[in-house]
Design goal:
Blueprint (H helix, E strand, L loop, with lengths): L1 H5 L6 H9 L7 E7 L5 H11 L7 E7 L6 H17 L3 E7 L3 H9 L11 E6 L11 H7 L8 H12 E12 L9 H10 E9 L15 E8 L6 E7 L8 E6 H4 L15 H10 L12 E4 L11 E2 L6 E5 L4 E2 L2 E2 L11 E3 L9 E2 L3 E5 L12 E4 L8 E4 L3 E5 L7 H11 L2 H10 L7 H5 L6 H10 L7 H12 L1
Parallel strand pairs: 1-2, 1-4, 2-3, 4-5, 6-8, 12-19
Antiparallel strand pairs: 5-7, 6-7, 8-9, 10-20, 11-15, 12-15, 13-14, 16-19, 17-18, 17-20
Length: 481
């Protein structure tokens, strides 16, 4: 419970050793920052690496921040062991433990406050920061905003703050959720980070839970190694492992422009880990149209069921409109009503709900949430008004819907768009920048699309919305690539 409140998950020793191995660490005097130090696993792993290096530093000074008083005794013992290990190989070691809030304590240094009791900037930083959302009016958000950092999660706030206290050429190795790679909430963080830090390596764990098997951590995590003040490299190391102890690591070199597209205003970070993903990214680059060029938009379903509970009906009746949930998806189209469903099938039409409904028409629907075991992350279907007769329809908030200025679109365009979205090419590409099971309208807007004519041509070829995946992929490849 306490870890959940603090957003804190302790780093397993194999993960800590992996992170420590990413540093170049060729400084004669190391000034190390460990923000959110926990029991000291990260610092211990890096000290062990430095003590066994052929070229050892002469001095290591550590500032370790840990807010949880329960962990301070363990942290003190761990750093004491680090000191003994360093002394045994002739390295001077000093450590300061700060049982204080990292954000508020760092601000004087960031502001170059002469009254600050901090002893200077850092050339190395290693961090497993806390993961917790911070609201717009929270104290943490206001403190970060005061030094020009705008972000919605503690982990990105910690990393952004650390980049400001690194010296030029200073190295950062951080393990965080992948959520910063895409989405509008992390755009200010991505822009600032990529302007100040040069990406060297990104490491992805193939399993959501193996790296933190003792904790209920379901986010996909990534380790990032970056250097401050250098130009972005021509190539970035992308590596993967299962996350289990001693699991093999597979590495590949990716062009930086394959990781962050030079013309992408959102600065999405793509984790292209193998040949299949590179092929998908190359194929998707052929599709440069934004939705607005097709005359289309995508929105989130307007009906939030718990807010409209008094208007929901289990089954259709006079004065109601169909209410579509993800459970109504079946074979590439909507099957409604679903009598055995635990979800309501209809919503009452009156002045309070009319604004939640859209006019009958052909729409393309995409699930906003998929189970982690589902084969595809993007699951699209066609809403055919001939199968769901009504003048109005409601799309529940767990759906995104593609539309033409708030109305339906031509059927052939919808068929082609749904086939494109359901292709393996799009799914593989989407997973390169999205590490969670949520598909937001913003993510869909960020995709490149084929031309309107190409989608219509593809839609004319689609005869079976529920065709096998390999058959659909063949249609898409032949029609669009």
């Amino acid at each position: 419970m306490r870890r959940g409140l603090l957003g804190q998950f302790l780093t397993p020793s194999p993960v800590a050793s992996l992170m420590a191995s990413f540093f170049k660490a060729d400084w004669n005097e190391v000034r190390l920052l460990d923000a959110g130090a926990g029991a000291g696993a990260l610092t211990a792993a890096l000290v062990d690496r430095l003590c066994s290096a052929e070229k050892k530093p002469s001095r290591i000074a550590v500032d370790a921040y840990e807010l949880d008083p329960i962990l301070i005794a363990k942290l003190r013992r761990s750093l004491g062991n680090c000191r003994k290990q360093c002394e045994s190989v002739g390295i001077s070691f000093k450590a300061n433990i700060f049982n204080r809030d990292f954000i508020s304590n760092m601000l004087p240094l960031v502001r170059n406050d002469l009254l600050s009791n901090q002893s200077g900037a850092y050339n190395l930083a290693i961090v497993n920061p806390p993961y917790r959302k911070i609201h717009a009016d929270s104290a943490e958000r206001r403190l970060l905003r005061s030094v020009g950092i705008e972000t919605s999660n503690l982990y990105s706030g910690f990393v952004a703050l650390i980049t400001k206290v690194l010296v030029q050429g200073g190295e950062l190795v951080a393990i965080t959720p992948r959520s910063f790679c895409n989405g509008p909430y992390f755009k200010p963080f991505r822009v600032a980070f990529l302007e100040s830090m040069s990406l060297c390596r990104l490491h992805i764990f193939e399993s959501r839970s193996a790296a933190f098997s003792r904790d209920d951590v379901l986010q996909e995590n990534v380790i990032c190694h970056a250097v401050k003040g250098e130009a972005q490299p021509g190539k970035v190391v992308i590596s993967t492992s299962s996350g289990a102890p001693d699991s093999p690591i597979v590495e590949r070199l990716a062009q930086f422009e394959d990781v962050v597209a030079p013309n992408d205003p959102e600065r999405f970070i793509h984790l292209v880990t193998d040949r299949v993903q590179k092929l998908a990214r190359t194929a998707m680059r052929l599709h440069t149209n934004r939705l607005e060029a097709l005359g289309l938009s995508v929105s989130t379903g307007r009906v939030v069921d718990f807010r409209a509970r008094g208007f929901l009906r289990d089954n259709p009746e006079d004065g109601t409109a169909p209410l579509i949930y993800p459970c109504h998806f079946n074979g590439g189209t909507v099957h409604w009503p679903k009598k055995e469903s635990r979800k309501p099938n209809a919503i009452k039409i009156d002045d309070q709900t009319r604004g939640l409904l859209v006019p009958a028409g052909v729409y393309v629907l995409v699930k906003r949430f998929t189970a982690k075991e589902e084969r595809r992350r993007i699951v699209a279907c066609v809403f055919d008004p001939n199968l769901v007769p009504s003048d109005l329809v409601g799309f529940e908030n767990h759906l995104n819907y593609f539309h033409l200025s708030g109305h339906g679109m031509p059927m052939e365009l919808a068929e082609g768009l749904a086939a494109f979205l359901n292709s393996t090419m799009v799914d593989v590409y989407f997973r390169q920048f999205s590490g969670h099971t949520q598909v937001n309208a913003t993510d869909l807007r960020a995709l490149g699309f084929p031309s309107k004519d190409a989608l219509i041509h593809l839609g004319r070829e689609i005869k079976d919305r529920g065709m096998p995946q390999n058959t659909l992929d063949a249609f898409v490849e032949q029609g669009l690539i």
